[in-house]
Amino acid sequence: MHTDETFDYDVAVVGGGPAGLTTALYATRLGLDTLVVNRGGGRAAMMQDTHNVIGVTEDVSGNEFLRTAIEQVKEYGADYQQGFVEDVEPLSGAEAEAVDSDAEDGADAPDTESGFRLTTSDGTVDALSVVLATGFSDERPDPPLPRTGKGLHYCLHCDAYMFVDEPVFVMGAGDSAANVAMIMLNYTDDVDLLTRGAEPEWSDETAEQLSNHPVDVITEDVTGVNNDENGWLESLEFEDGAVREYRGGFPMYGSDYHAELADALGLEREDDGTVAVDDHGRTSVDGVYAVGDLTPGHNQIPVAMGEGAKAGIALHMDLREFPRDADEIDERGSVGDKEVPAVSPELLSTAIAHDGHAGGPRREAEVEAPGDD
C-alpha cells in the first residue's frame, strides 16, 4: 500500500453519505488507498429531491445523487463495501506484533501505537486511519404522519423555500420547535405549532417570544392525514374534530447520533452529542477523523462535502510520504529512486487509465481528432 505495506488500507471510511464519499474521493485522488464501508440508507438517501447543491438539479433524488458519487469514488480506485462496521479497535500489543510479522523483510515496521482494526460484516481489515461519517437519524414523532418528503420534512434550510406563502406546521413542545415555528414566519404568514398533547417544555423566554409572534399553538393530537392523488399532504385531522390545511411541516424531536464507534474509540463529544473535531475533521484520538452530521455545524450536503474535502486533504498531509523531514532523513536516509512515486501499484494503474489523467484516453482521443482547417 501507499503509506505502509503492512496495512490493508491507508484510510477506512465508515459511512457512505456525502461527507464520507467526498472524504474518500479526495483521499483516493491524493494517492491514499481507501476503503468505504457503507451500511446504506441515511438522511441523504431519503431525499425526494436535491436542494441547495450547486450544479445538481432539483429532479435528482438522494439515491441518484449517492449512486453517482459511489461510482465516481470507485472509478478513482477506492474499494467500496456495502455492509456494517461492527467494531473499530486501535492496533496495539499482540495485534500490532501480528501485523509486524507480516511485513516483508527489510520493510519498515509500523508504529505499534498506530493503525486500527475494523471488524466488518465481511471480515477484518487494518487501516492506518479511520474516518467516521456515520451521521444521525432524526427522531420521528408518533404516527399518524405525512409521507417523508411529501409533507414531512427535516431540514428547514433545505425545504423552507418550498413553503413560501403556504400553510405549514412545526411539531414539538421544546425550544427548538418554537424557534423553528417563529423562523418559518420569514417565509409564510400561516404557521401552526403542534404540541400533539404534550406539555410545552420551552423556556419562559421562548414563551414570551412566542406570544409576540403570530404562531398558533395547537395542543390537540393528530388523528388523521389527508393526501392528494400524488401523495402530497393536503391536511391534518385533530382529536377535536378540526381539519387544518397544510402543505408540509417540520418535526422537531431531536437527533439520534450514530456514535457507537466514536464511543468505543473514546472520542471526545460535545454537549449536544456531536463528535468534537478541529477544522479538518481530526478528533481527540490520533488517526481518527469525523465528518458530516456526526460533527458540529449545519446539516447540509454542501457543508458535509466541504468537511469531507478538508478531511481528505488533512489525511493526505498527515499520511503522505514526502517531503521527508530532516529527522526522517537522518533516520531513513535520502529518498531513493525506487521509493517514488509513493502510490500503490493499484492506484497507479487506475490513475493512468482514468479519463482525467494527463496521458489518459480522453487526451489521446483529443490528439487523434482532426484539427480545424
UniProtKB/TrEMBL annotation:
Q: Where is the FAD/NAD(P)-binding domain?
A: 9-308
Source organism superkingdom: Archaea
For molecular function, the Gene Ontology terms on record are:
oxidoreductase activity
The UniProt entry, under InterPro entries, shows: FAD/NAD-bd_sf (IPR036188), FAD/NAD-binding_dom (IPR023753), Ferredoxin-NADP_redctase_2 (IPR050097)
Q: Give the matching Pfam families.
A: Pyr_redox_2
Q: Where is the composition biased (Basic and acidic residues)?
A: 354-366
Q: Region labeled Disordered — which residues? A: 92-117, 352-373
Listed Acidic residues bias regions = 97-111
Q: Which UniProt keywords apply?
A: Flavoprotein, Oxidoreductase
Record-given protein name: NAD(P)/FAD-dependent oxidoreductase
Species whose genome carries this gene: Natronoarchaeum mannanilyticum
Source species taxonomy = Archaea, Methanobacteriati, Methanobacteriota, Stenosarchaea group, Halobacteria
